[in-house]
Amino acid sequence: MMTKFLFFSGKGGVGKTSLSSATAVMLANRGLKTLLVTTDPASNLGDVFHQSVGLLATPVAGVDNLFIQEIDSVESLRLYKERALAPLRELFPDDVVRSIEEKMSGPCTEEIATFDQFIDCMHRPEYDYVIFDTAPTGHTLRLLELPGSWSAHIEMSAEGTGQTCIGGVEALTASKEQYDQAVQALRDGECTQFVFVTRPDRIAIEEMMRSSQELQRLGMNKQMTIVNGVIPEEDRAHPYAARRWTVQSKYIAQIQSMFTGRIVEMPLYPDDVIGLGKIEEVGRDLDHVLAV
């Protein structure tokens, strides 16, 4: 079975981590080996499962076939720089290596280092599914656009010192080829799906639609939306819930008129989605509506 990828994205606070975690548990309980990766520095993935999340894939206690991992930008940068500089230390004096290291201290290097770890998670053929709980949408889009913005920078640097702010031209060119292959996989609807999580409110929907259009511009067209936090039908008779539902239904209709992909609704739960028992409950609800 070819590894499949699910990317959960959306505005901060809409429930990406809860729903990506529930999806991961659902798939693992089907017997599918699943890796859940967070690229969001504000993620509470460890709190959801009541266990620590590290840079290496860690088994989730109580769930066979499920592993979790965190992509940390600071540690990713350290590993990336060390890998790039290690062969140079044997060839050049310390002052030259320090000069190169200074060039690699800009924000572009951190972005590429994070993308490097991101790509590593995509090259895991031992998993049936790799699920990404991503940072708020704008950061994710920037990450996915990176390989396409390198070419001119590489060509200019190759005519000069042979060094870029993100490493040597030769090594970077090889990396870019690998990254381009990964982006091709992201564009393949047979193996990759983008799942937008939104609340039925104006700001979240506007961000979701902008992101959907940006991904389409990048050739990533397999998309679906989960409208999270919908007032359950059995609660709508209550006066407050009825007023909330009146507003929500208007925004749900707006999503249906604008978004061309699949749309599913998830209810507003009375309790926080924390702990394995609650995650499994949400996973069972998702299993009825999520076509994965």
From TrEMBL:
Domain named ArsA/GET3 Anion-transporting ATPase-like: residues: 3-286
Recorded GO MF terms: ATP binding; ATP hydrolysis activity
Superkingdom to which the source organism belongs: Bacteria
Alphabetical list of SUPFAM superfamilies matching this protein: P-loop containing nucleoside triphosphate hydrolases (SSF52540)
Family of the protein in this entry: Belongs to the arsA ATPase family.
Family annotation (PANTHER family): ARSENICAL PUMP-DRIVING ATPASE ARSENITE-TRANSLOCATING ATPASE, ATPASE GET3
Protein name as catalogued: Arsenic ABC transporter ATPase
